[in-house]
Specification:
- By secondary structure, the protein is mainly β.
- It has a single domain, classed as Sandwich (Hypothetical Protein Aq_1857, Chain: A).
- About 10% of the residues lie in helices and about 45% in strands.
- It is built from one helix and seven strands; from the N terminus they run E-H-E-E-E-E-E-E.
- The chain has a four-stranded mixed β-sheet, with no helix packed on it. A three-stranded mixed β-sheet has the order 1-6-7.
- A hairpin with a 2-residue loop joins strand 4 and strand 5.
- InterPro entries: HesB-like_dom_sf (IPR035903).
Length: about 90
């Protein structure tokens, strides 16, 4: 179980989102609907409190708190970009 951040995602975070070197990004699980997949990933600048998974990519730190890793179900998460949009894939 790990977080994988692609070069295109890093470019998007820095160029489109204005995230600078040394910043910390939390990947979290949020409720989005009562449909087939009621949960999705979200992103925010934050400080780790109980990080279960952490990765550093090009001077940015990405992490998930222990209360959110249940959604990974033991899989790794690939954070990528399609244009200006961040997308998530289980790896």
């Amino acid at each position: 179980m790990e977080l994988i951040v692609t070069p295109s995602a890093l470019s998007c975070f820095k160029e489109e989102w204005g995230i600078g070197d040394g910043e910390t990004i939390r990947v979290f699980v949020r409720y989005v609907s009562g449909g087939e997949v009621p949960f999705a990933f979200g992103l925010t600048r934050d400080t780790p409190h109980d990080a279960a998974v952490t990765t550093v990519a090009d001077s940015l730190t990405f992490y998930m708190e222990s209360k959110d890793v249940w959604f990974l179900d033991g899989k790794s998460l690939k954070i990528d970009a399609q244009g200006e949009e961040i997308v998530f894939h289980f790896a």
